[in-house]
From TrEMBL:
It comes from the Eukaryota. InterPro entries: AB_hydrolase_fold, Peptidase_S28. The keyword Membrane does not apply. The lineage of its organism: Eukaryota, Fungi, Dikarya, Basidiomycota, Agaricomycotina. The keyword Phosphoprotein does not apply. This is Serine carboxypeptidase S28.
Length: 530
């Protein structure tokens, strides 16, 4: 047991570095970011001529308009990366943004390690990765105070894609005459950027010849309890049974327990410093959030599975599907937290800073510097999309404490952005407006390929949601694999999961047909251009 715990700790410490780059809070909803796909910075050759191309990590800068509606406001530098390994004249331009994160190092999305590069390889296209405004170093302002976030909207992000496509002069030969009227552009996105793909094709008809949207969270939803449903459905049964049992007990103690019972519960998890009971209940979501980083290629050592093993394997014996029951599971969960999990989660921060969500002086809320992508993401959450990942409604099984409710998460909006959401204002994101503007689940556009994974926790906001049926049609196909969040983006996942391979192959066939039909002068968009 000691050996096992040591190994678990070593593994957790090895992954700690990645999560502690910036002060963050581990008790607020996770962004829907898809796993990154890096590529080595090795020389790339133009396949047709053998010419040596610039390294994939060469950064290009585009002069983007701060406000499309008010061009006099000027421009800012938008970063992008670009290669033309497979390009031949007439080929498509494949554009991808990772969305809510720094786009540096996303070079795998330029080459055939991803579906992007596979499309380029098949269709002799060129690839681009562009950084979304207000993430990484792409920012119109030198800090992200409330007033400077004014131009951080979904619509501005869509307008950026349009202005970029119509204006950019690409470094490749002939790159000054491949606008969307002259060449077919394909927009690719995953998760938030998958939704952005759908929303852009709704908002700018004809701009992109085709789209590929994986795990696209097209429907904005305030209380997104469905996030945890795929986790509950696909995790080991004994583990879900025990998590439900522990959470029911935790809620009883936190709601009706004596002070000493509550103190004992906090001690169990090593979070004595937390003063608000909903922070205690909310924090236990972390083990379920870990599901989001699983991929078909993930081995049994993934943090999520380590958690279930910690609860369900006792003296080398696995629990039956009913679990071991609350007594063992509660102490095993506490042991898991105190044996490395909590240290890794908090990366050197105090428990109060890491898991407390009430202190307005917490660096999480006060750090307005450029590159604080989590702040930037929360601006979109609080204003336009919601997706608060909370407890299931009463009467349904829940893996999450019922103290974690949308109002609990939305409260953070006032702490992040006090000038926009004054204290006590009970912010509610404008999801109805978002869905009306960009059609959410009711999207109907031609040549948009949706890919989803059965085990994706975000599936409930996609066109493959259990709660909302969207038909798959030849012009707007929906292909579902057994994968997780955005699993079909990475080529490597197809090697381990044939259902992911099938999705990629279906997409490549669809793209081939759709791109064949492109005619530069007759394209609808050419006629609409200003
Ligand atoms: C690209 O990567 C190489 C090798 O890692 C590095 O030496 C170089 O500085 C990088 N260039 C840029 C522009 O980041
Ligand atoms: C991916 O691209 C590389 C060149 O960058 C090529 O050597 C390789 O064969 C391609 N992979 C596949 C499966 O076509
Ligand atoms: C019980 O949990 C273990 C450890 O996570 C897992 O390997 C096993 O498949 C689970 N069994 C059942 C019946 O859920
Ligand atoms: C997984 O962990 C076990 C021990 O817990 C170790 O023996 C094994 O090498 C690990 N596998 C991987 C792929 O890290």
């Amino acid at each position: 047991m000691v050996l096992l715990r040591t190994l678990v700790l070593l593994h957790l410490l090895a992954t700690a570095y990645a999560t502690q780059l910036r002060a963050r809070n581990a008790n607020l909803p996770r962004p829907p970011t898809v796993p990154p796909v890096p590529a080595p910075d090795i020389a790339v050759y133009h396949v047709a001529t053998g010419a040596v191309l610039p390294p994939l990590n060469t950064t290009y800068y585009f002069d983007q308009l701060i406000d499309r509606a008010n061009p006099q406001l000027g421009t800012f530098k938008q970063r992008y990366w670009h290669t033309w390994e497979w390009y031949e004249k007439g080929g498509p331009i494949i554009l991808y943004t990772p969305g809510e994160e720094n786009a540096e190092g996303m070079t795998g999305f330029l080459v055939n390690r991803t579906i992007n590069g596979q499309i380029a390889q098949q269709e002799h296209g060129a690839t681009i990765v562009i950084e979304h405004r207000y993430y990484g170093e792409t920012n119109p302002f030198s800090d992200m105070s409330d007033k400077n976030l004014k131009y951080h909207t979904i619509q501005q992000a869509i307008d950026d894609l349009e202005y970029f496509a119509k204006t950019v002069k690409l470094a490749m030969p002939g790159g000054d005459s491949v606008g969307p009227a002259e060449a077919p552009w394909v927009l690719v996105g995953g998760s938030y950027s998958g939704a952005l793909t759908s929303w852009t094709m709704v908002n700018k008809p004809g701009l992109f010849r085709a789209g590929y949207a994986t795990s696209a969270v097209v429907e904005a939803i305030v209380g997104f309890w469905e996030y945890f449903e795929p986790v509950r459905q696909y995790m080991p049964k004994n583990c879900s049974a025990d998590v439900e049992a522990v959470i029911a007990h935790v809620d009883t103690v936190l709601k009706t327990g004596s002070e000493s019972q509550i103190a004992q519960l906090k001690d169990n998890f090593g979070v004595t410093e937390l003063t608000h009971v909903d922070d205690v209940g909310g924090a236990l979501r972390n083990n379920l959030w870990d599901w989001q980083s699983l991929e078909p290629s993930t081995g049994p050592n993934a943090t999520f599975y380590q958690f279930c093993d910690a609860l369900e394997v006792k003296n080398g014996v696995s629990a039956p599907s009913s679990g071991w029951g609350v007594d063992h599971a509660l102490s095993a969960w506490g042991g898991f937290w105190q044996d490395g999990y909590l240290d890794n989660l908090c990366g050197g921060q105090s428990i109060a800073d890491c898991l407390g969500t009430y202190d307005p002086t917490n660096p999480l809320f006060t750090d307005i510097s450029v590159g604080n992508d989590y702040r930037s993401w929360n601006w979109i959450v609080c204003n336009e999309v919601g997706w608060f990942e909370d407890a299931a409604p009463v009467g349904m099984p829940t893996l999450v404490s019922r103290l974690a409710q949308p109002a609990y998460d939305a409260r953070a909006c006032s702490l992040f952005f006090p000038d926009t959401f004054p204290a006590g204002s009970s912010p509610v994101p404008r999801v109805a407006q978002t869905n009306a503007a960009y059609h959410g689940w009711d999207v109907h556009v031609d040549r948009l390929f949706f890919a989803n994974g059965k085990r994706d926790p975000w599936r409930g906001a996609t066109v493959s949601a259990d709660a909302h049926f969207v038909p798959s049609t030849p012009e707007q196909p929906i292909a579902v694999s057994d994968g997780f969040h955005g699993s079909d983006l990475a080529t490597s996942n197809a090697l381990v999961d044939p259902t992911v391979l099938a999705v990629q192959q279906q997409a490549l066939r669809a793209m081939h047909g759709w791109l064949q039909g492109f005619e530069p002068t007759k394209q609808g968009y050419a006629e609409e251009m200003e």
